[in-house]
UniProtKB/TrEMBL annotation:
GO terms for molecular function: structural molecule activity. Coiled coil: none annotated. It is found in: Archaeal flagellum. It comes from Thermococcus aciditolerans. Flagellin is the subunit protein which polymerizes to form the filaments of archaeal flagella. PANTHER family: FLAGELLIN B1 (PTHR35903). The chain crosses the membrane at residues 12-34. This is Flagellin. Keywords: Archaeal flagellum, Cell projection, Cilium, Flagellum, Membrane, Transmembrane, Transmembrane helix.
Length: 347
């Protein structure tokens, strides 16, 4: 009898052990399921929020206008674009610093970004242009004393360019250049035979820390006024654009952190043809020949725009205004068969 009870007890303990093991396994499985379901729930919630933001947010291109600088009736080429944009309904705030403009004329495609308050290296920009080795690339300076442009074509070899410093002032010297700068009239400084002919571009150190933004606020008389609007004056490269905040009730479209949100209307100023002028503001650049005279004072530096001379009649242009997240704004138009006014509505 005792042996029988002992055997039953042993069987009962074994059953209990199996039961406890099953409970432990179930507990572990339940913990894994709970953790997994919690993670999936949070992931689904996060994905839902991001998807909603992606779908609801975006930029709308309201209007595109172009500018032809030729005398009326205009018969030249469109050299500037004003792209009116606003956020989509229900859109979250859009950081224009991270917003790119992609544009194509069928032969080439360019990507533009906002010119924010970042310092620039003028010496590097000029040197890069001059040593490009192609006569189609050039840099121009506006001679404020004689009211004319001085153009230096970029067909110099690397050995023709020398850079020296006097304190913080950079002296960029070009050999094999025309050593005569006329007192009047436009002039092209080009390569010549004699290595003794030199032109020196004197760049003050203050320009190396120049950090003004291409930004304006409020209603303006003329969105293409490159003389008075910072949105044009302080574009320092052909692949940059400026901002005019026409409508911004909460002052969110600031020059350092321009955020486009509900109710805002801004114009993106885009140079597409001719010469992109960079106004050096209170600073001045000096260009002189090998003898040191005559020296001319410079207040503007120019670079060739990405689409050459600009958009011609009957030309198809496509592109997008692409925010960091959300739907992009569409740019698509064909220029008119003829330009009869300076300002042309394109889209």
């Amino acid at each position: 009898m005792f042996r029988r009870l002992k055997k039953r007890g042993a069987v009962g303990i074994g059953t209990l052990i199996v039961f406890i093991a099953m409970v432990l396994v179930a507990a572990v499985a339940a913990a894994v399921l709970i953790n997994t379901s919690g993670y999936l729930q949070q992931k689904a919630s996060s994905t839902g929020r991001e998807t909603t933001q992606e779908v609801a947010s975006g930029i709308q291109v309201v209007k595109v206008v172009g500018y032809d600088p030729a005398s009326q009736p205009a018969s030249g080429k469109i050299t500037k674009l004003g792209i009116y944009v606003s956020p989509n309904a229900g859109s979250a705030g859009i950081d224009l610093r991270s917003t790119k403009i992609i544009m194509s004329d069928g032969d080439s495609q360019a990507i533009f970004q906002y010119r924010a308050t970042n310092s620039i290296n003028v010496t590097t920009l000029i040197n890069k242009t001059l040593t490009s080795g192609s006569s189609s690339n050039y840099i121009v300076f506006y001679d404020t004393t004689n009211n004319r442009w001085v153009k230096i074509i970029g067909n110099f070899s690397a050995t023709d360019i020398s850079l020296s410093y006097s304190g913080t002032t950079a002296n960029l010297t070009i050999s094999n250049a025309n050593d005569t700068i006329p007192a009047s009239g436009n002039v092209t400084i080009s390569a010549v035979a004699s290595s003794t002919n030199k032109v020196t571009i004197i760049i003050p150190g203050a320009l190396e820390t120049f950090s003004s933004a291409a930004h304006d606020s409020g209603v303006v008389n003329n969105i293409f006024d490159s003389t008075n609007l910072d949105a044009w004056k302080y574009i320092v490269a052909p692949t940059e654009y400026g901002i005019i905040a026409l409508q911004d009730a909460d002052n969110s479209v600031q020059e350092a952190y321009p955020t486009l949100n509900a109710g805002d209307l801004v114009v993106l100023t885009v140079p597409v043809g001719g010469t992109t002028d960079f106004d050096v503001s209170a600073n001045t650049i000096t260009v002189q020949d090998v003898s040191g005279t005559p020296a001319i004072t410079i207040q503007k530096v120019g670079f060739s725009a990405v689409f050459g001379d600009g958009f011609q009649p009957r030309q198809k242009i496509t592109g997008k205004v692409v925010p960091e997240f959300g739907a992009p704004g569409v740019i698509e138009f064909t220029t008119p068969t003829s330009f009869t006014t300076n300002i042309i509505t394109l889209q």
